[in-house]
């Protein structure tokens, strides 16, 4: 069986994932853990003067958290872990109630790069947030998580489609409306059900950001339970590791030599181009304000950035045993071999030799293994928030990730040891020394 420290970390990871079916739940769960460790939430309208110790700012599906060691000068460099909270899925349309041929269905939109076949014949719940009319007229927000099997995207029987095993691509517009009842569509029915589960009056709902999630719980797989199987490993593995590392850096026996930062962005799966994405000025403004709140000048801000380092942590591809030819022949990461360092000379990843040196030195100090990754030259390479952060802040950045299979699937797989290895390395980088 796997060693207890790794299993302990992944047990906690699975609890985190089960409670986080949407980016908004990811932020709420991370904030709860930070507050338990003594961090305090700052709002944009607050006075941040003198703010030290552990602080965080949350905005919808994004969270920026940092820890200022006691007595740290305003120019103390940052050690940033960049992640993202969103995952590819099916999101509910503004006018959701639809149906045909005696079935009640809901309309959904495809979010990110979804392998649609993985969402077929799965029991689906609803999650996200409602925007509600407040008692003073100002809008308020309420998280929603319905873990009941309410919906399903049924696959066409093989008797009615003999080509189903020949790689036919689903019609993205016509065949993905999930069923959830019999009868004609009833306007407002979905909203009434969701509001009722949240204990709210449907008349108070002004808007929503709702999505579907597989209600099958995360778990373990394999003869010795050496694999983790769960939805949204991309990228909740990294968010969880980043929160764990930041808390450990802030509460450990050794005070950090830097200002450790966790930046968990939203909308990475669709390009990061939003107010809460990595292309936005969110991280830059918050970190700059944290420097000035401690009495720092523009010169202090520039010095803090000049000495900064960023780890962009996202999932990576393990070699697929049935499609080994799709991978680089000399770079074939395996689960439980440690996180990968992702390299792409065309800057789809921001890694360079300096970033590799910092990350691998931290891996050695933490006792964690690591693996190199590069894409097959004949295959298009994915990307991450790393290049966006590097370009916006001008800081040295390394792209890393836990290797897994079934990326973007409704249910993904990684090794049981690797999430703990990643957290250990990130903690070492945040603490420094």
Describe the structure.
With 433 residues, the chain is an alpha/beta fold. The protein contains 9 helices and 20 strands. A 9-stranded mixed sheet has the order 1-2-3-13-4-14-18-16-17, with helices on both faces. Strands 11-12-20-19-15 form a 5-stranded mixed sheet, with helices on one face. The protein has a 3-stranded antiparallel sheet with strand order 5-6-9, with no helix packed on it. α1 (4-18) packs across α9, α4 crosses α9 (418-431) and α5 (282-293) packs across α6.
Sum this structure up briefly.
With 433 residues, the protein is an alpha/beta fold. The chain has 9 helices and 20 strands. The chain has 2 domains: 4-87 and 231-431, Aminopeptidase (3-Layer(aba) Sandwich); 89-214, Aminopeptidase i, Domain 2.
Strand order in the sheet with the most strands: 1-2-3-13-4-14-18-16-17
H and E order? HHEEEEEEEEEHEEEHEHHEEEHEHEEEH
Count up the domains: 2
| Proportion of beta-strand residues | 25-35%
Helix content: 25-40%
Largest sheet: 9 strands, mixed
Assign an overall shape: globular
* Spatial separation of the terminal alpha carbons: 34 Å
CATH class descriptor name of the largest domain: Alpha Beta
Our count of helices gives 9
- Taking pLDDT < 50 over at least 5 consecutive residues as the criterion, the unreliable ranges are none
- Derived from helix and strand composition plus strand pairing, the structural class reads alpha/beta
